[in-house]
């Protein structure tokens, strides 16, 4: 089946399950809007490309699906830089399609030409410039894979106008083999054992919950861990909703925009169990004075986060949900092995500072 590059792009987006996209037409991307008229994809027309990017972010955070935005070349592309940077900081899966001048005009300072792949290199997980119409199905498949695999984040696909108008024989994308985007998902058993020992030997542990818990859909697993261990919870801004505020062990949000209870709990803790949090300066303040007497367990799927701000005593590299589940299993096994009448599994000293 012969398709134009524009038709192949829309078909590829449909193949990835895209239902909604946000965008603003412009000369370089206009060919893609023709097949979009006949597509099942709902297009939300914005008045500024920055709005398209932020709408796509919100859609992704609420739905759990990657947000998709489409903009034209030059100023259209540069207008979406801020949403890309924001999505990168918030680990939000975002796929941006940017129009580009014809491949024959790239590098000639053509009208509304800019090196958007160069501009966004530091604020995307990866980006692509399509120079062969036959690459469209594979590139789009890879873009969605990268945006949603491991620690989620934004990607950008630069789409030249002559590629949009070129013809290709439609084919399904091949197998995706991107070794750099195959994260570790299962935590190391020895690390789980070490983390369990730290928890059992602590008096004032606190669960410091970040956005990674929501990204890995680990709210239920977190609730089970809290119910079985009795460890209180503080939630960062990106983790709001991961644990119910109505729960007796919910201490609220820490940091400069947080509340006294959460801040005090962290400062008095002797063990900090960080789950998908990145020790942001709005939470920690001066890092040497943050939870100064606490040992640290840091669970995160992104190895680059481990030790970046605070060196942990134990690192749990893997998907947050799996780390939480394995910690719960390990603690439960230890509880089952205790003889009747022994001291509680966690002799917590938390009542005074929870009140």
Describe this structure in words.
- By secondary structure, the protein is of the alpha/beta class.
- The protein folds into 2 domains: 2-181, Rossmann fold (3-Layer(aba) Sandwich), CATH 3.40.50; 189-354, 3-Layer(aba) Sandwich (Rossmann fold).
- It has 15 helices and 14 strands.
- The strands form 3 sheets. Strands 3-2-4-5-7-6 form a 6-stranded parallel β-sheet, with helices on both faces.
- Helix 1 packs across helix 2 (30-36).
- Mean pLDDT is 94; it is low at 341-347.
Short characterization:
The protein has 355 residues and is an alpha/beta fold.
- Which percent bin holds the helix content? 25-40%
**Contiguous uncertain segments of 5+ residues:** 341-347
N-to-C span? 68 Å
Q: Largest sheet, order of strands side by side?
A: 3-2-4-5-7-6
Instruction: Output mean pLDDT.
Output: 94
- What order do the helices and strands follow? EHEHEHEHHEHEHEHEHEHHEEHEHEEHH
**CATH domain fold name of the largest domain:** Rossmann fold
Query: Which architecture of the largest domain would the CATH scheme give at its second level?
Result: 3-Layer(aba) Sandwich
- What's the overall geometry? elongated
Rg, alpha carbons: 24 Å
CATH evolutionary superfamily of the largest domain: Thiamin diphosphate (ThDP)-binding fold, Pyr/PP domains
Strand content: 15-25%
What count of structural domains? 2
Q: DSSP helix count? A: 15
How is the biggest beta sheet arranged?
6 strands, parallel
CATH class of the largest domain: Alpha Beta
Alpha-beta content class: alpha/beta
Strand runs, count: 14
């Amino acid at each position: 089946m012969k398709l134009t590059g524009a038709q192949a792009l829309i078909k590829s987006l449909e193949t990835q399950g895209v239902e909604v996209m946000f965008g603003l037409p412009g000369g370089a991307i206009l060919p893609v809007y023709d097949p979009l008229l006949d597509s099942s994809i709902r297009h939300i027309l914005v008045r500024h490309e920055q709005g398209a990017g932020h709408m796509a972010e919100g859609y992704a955070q609420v739905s759990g699906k990657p947000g998709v935005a489409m903009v034209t070349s030059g100023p259209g592309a540069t207008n979406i830089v801020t949403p890309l940077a924001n999505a990168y900081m918030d680990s939000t899966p975002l796929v941006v399609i940017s129009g580009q001048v014809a491949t024959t005009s790239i590098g000639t300072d053509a009208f509304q030409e800019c090196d958007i792949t160069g501009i966004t290199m530091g604020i995307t997980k990866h980006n692509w410039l399509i120079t062969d119409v036959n690459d469209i199905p594979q590139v789009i498949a890879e873009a969605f894979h990268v945006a949603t695999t491991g620690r989620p984040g934004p990607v950008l696909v630069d789409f030249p106008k002559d590629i949009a108008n070129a013809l290709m024989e439609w084919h399904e994308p091949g197998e995706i083999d991107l070794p750099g985007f195959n994260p570790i998902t299962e935590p190391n058993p020895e690390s789980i054992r070490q983390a369990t020992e730290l928890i059992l030997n602590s008096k004032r542990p606190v669960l410091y919950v970040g956005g990674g818990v929501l990204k890995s859909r680990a709210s239920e697993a977190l609730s089970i861990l809290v119910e079985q261990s009795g460890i209180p919870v503080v939630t960062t801004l990106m983790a709001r909703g991961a644990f119910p505020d109505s729960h007796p062990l919910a201490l609220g949000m820490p940091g400069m925009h947080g509340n006294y209870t959460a801040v005090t709990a962290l400062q008095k803790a002797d063990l900090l169990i960080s789950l998908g949090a990145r020790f942001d300066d709005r939470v920690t303040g001066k890092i040497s004075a943050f939870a100064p007497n606490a040992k640290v367990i840091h669970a995160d799927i992104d190895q680059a986060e481990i030790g970046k701000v605070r060196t942990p005593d134990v690192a749990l590299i893997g998907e947050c949900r799996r780390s939480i589940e394995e910690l719960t299993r390990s603690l439960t096994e230890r509880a089952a092995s205790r003889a009747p009448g022994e001291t509680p599994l966690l002799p917590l000293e938390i009542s005074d500072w929870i009140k």
